[in-house]
Design goal:
single chain; 332 residues; Nucleotidyltransferase, domain 5; five-stranded mixed sheet; 11 helices; 10 strands; 19% strand; globular; binds 5'-O-[(R)-(carboxyoxy)(hydroxy)phosphoryl]adenosine; binds zinc ion
Length: 332
């Protein structure tokens, strides 16, 4: 049996978790800083790292207490070492290094994006079978990845401009819905008509890449026109139209890519994978099984980092105590 304690501080969630055998969550504590950053309309890096400093130890203690395990029961300590905000990553990495040294435990630096993929392993009904096609959609990424084996990734498509989550956040700002944008757009869209305002879709035919900046600009221009006409903003209809456009492109492009590779499953991950319309549209349109973790495991958390670490730990991988942060780390 392996028991991994993981720490995640790459952006604005301070998180710690204990996971057994890479699949069973014993504790998963996520301290969101959203109320601190909301006043600024987005994450302020300096504020985020200070908040991590204040919150990391209490959250770590909560995760250890909740899991009811002793330090000597742990197999290893895992920590996100990139990609993310440098100052935020530093807090988690230094805490993990200190713990590994003090408790004589192995240390593993984990790629945050790999964590989002392994969130799926935390669902009991998920049966991995390689190769897998993975759509990874977060605040900074819209990647289509062919996962050939544990730890073996081929990037087949990526965003050319705004990531899907970033597009949701910017659209929410245009509509005056605040931060974070994804959940706010989803909520407003439930009462809107997605067909009242047609918005463009960038198909980028012939590639598996995505682009959402044209859609964002089209929404901005439309909102400006509507406002200038003095009618006020039909926020719910605009949110529904925007969400519909993003989801359609993500689903259709993923399904088209899935036809060209010998995959038997599709998995989705990252904060935008929490979107209910995206999940539902995949289930309706895909002939292949589509797996996604429950929404709380799609957004940033440390259990997913422990799940990814478990596979690497089993292979004998270890990081040294001079583990550094890599704000631009890629997958692969
Ligand atoms: O993976 P994540 O928690 O952090 C990063 O690694 O970036 O993703 C955050 C992004 C944000 O842009 C947020 O607006 C978006 O995920 N998001 C959503 C939803 N929940 C979070 N987007 C659409 N619908 C949601 N329900
Ligand atoms: Zn993330």
């Amino acid at each position: 049996m392996t028991l991994i304690l993981a720490i995640e501080t790459s952006c604005d969630e301070t998180a710690a978790a204990v996971v057994e055998n890479g699949r069973r969550i014993l504790s998963n504590v996520v301290g969101s800083q959203v109320e601190v950053h909301a006043a600024f309309g987005g994450v302020v890096p300096e504020v985020a790292s200070r908040q991590h400093l204040l919150r990391a130890i209490p959250i770590l203690e909560q995760a250890m207490g909740g899991a009811r395990v002793a330090w000597q029961d742990l197999s290893a300590i895992a920590v996100t070492h990139g990609p993310g905000l440098a100052g935020s990553l530093l807090v988690g990495v230094n805490l993990a290094k200190g713990l590994a040294l003090a408790r004589s435990l192995p240390l593993l630096g984990i790629n945050h994006l790999e964590g989002h993929i392994y969130a799926n392993w935390l669902e009991p009904d998920f049966e991995p079978a390689f190769p897998l096609l993975c759509l990874l959609v977060s605040g900074a990424h819209s990647d289509l990845i062919l996962m050939e084996e544990h730890g073996l990734y081929r990037l087949i498509g990526r965003t050319r401009d705004d990531a899907a989550g970033e597009a949701f956040d910017k659209a929410a700002r245009i509509l005056g819905l605040g931060y974070p944008g994804g959940p706010a757009i989803q909520e407003a869209a439930t009462k809107g008509d997605p067909r009242r305002f047609p918005l463009p879709r960038a198909w980028l035919r012939g590639t598996d890449d995505f682009s959402f900046s044209g859609l964002k600009t089209a929404l901005l221009r439309l909102a400006e026109r509507l406002q200038a006409s003095g009618q006020g903003l039909p926020v719910e209809d605009l949110a529904a139209a925007f969400q519909h456009a993003v989801v359609e492109v993500l689903v259709e492009k993923t399904l088209r890519a899935a036809e060209r590779f010998p995959v038997s499953r599709i998995i989705i991950g990252g904060g935008v994978a929490a979107n209910l319309l995206l999940r539902q549209t995949f289930q309706e349109r895909s002939e292949l099984p589509v797996f996604c973790a429950r929404p709380a495991l799609c957004t940033d958390n440390a259990a997913m980092i422990a799940a990814a670490a478990d596979v690497r730990f089993a292979k004998g991988e270890r990081s040294s105590l001079d583990l550094d942060v890599h704000p631009n780390l890629r997958l692969g």
